[in-house]
UniProtKB/TrEMBL annotation:
It comes from Opuntia streptacantha. It comes from the Eukaryota. Residues 29-76 form the Retrotransposon Copia-like N-terminal domain. Pfam families: Retrotran_gag_3. This is Retrotransposon Copia-like N-terminal domain-containing protein.
Length: 126
């Protein structure tokens, strides 16, 4: 019977394999950084439809649309994927903060997930 330590190590190694696969939702490319600009036109409240479509296209290209749509669900607290999921979601939050006007950015800054921001913006401007 394997001991718990070996099982944990194997689980972590499997999780790390996901992070190296560019097709996996939890993959972050070395060029991905919090200051990346997703779209050229910031959300100003009046351009929501075109802004949303532009952001969706950019997030699809980065394989991160699932974070804002809620299809890339947050793993359980004990999952070895949780830390990487949180890193990816915080990256998406940063991209969204840089894709909106300063006044809007200030109002979403303390949101806990990118999904929460996405729903808030949809409710306010959609």
């Amino acid at each position: 019977m394997e001991n718990n330590s070996n099982v944990q190590t194997e689980t972590i190694l499997q999780a790390n394999t996901f992070f190296q696969d560019p097709s996996h939702d939890l993959f972050l490319h070395p060029s991905d950084n919090p200051n990346n600009i997703l779209v050229s036109d910031l959300l100003n409240g009046k351009n929501y439809g075109t802004w949303k479509k532009s952001v969706e296209i950019a997030l699809i290209a980065k394989n991160k649309l699932g974070f804002v749509l809620g299809t890339c669900a947050k793993p359980d607290a004990t999952s070895p994927l949780l830390h990487q999921w949180d890193r990816c979601d915080k990256m998406v939050i940063s991209w969204l903060l840089h894709a909106v006007d300063k006044r809007i950015s200030d109002s979403i800054l303390f949101s806990s997930t990118s999904r929460q921001i996405w729903l808030d913006l949809e409710q306010r401007f959609g």
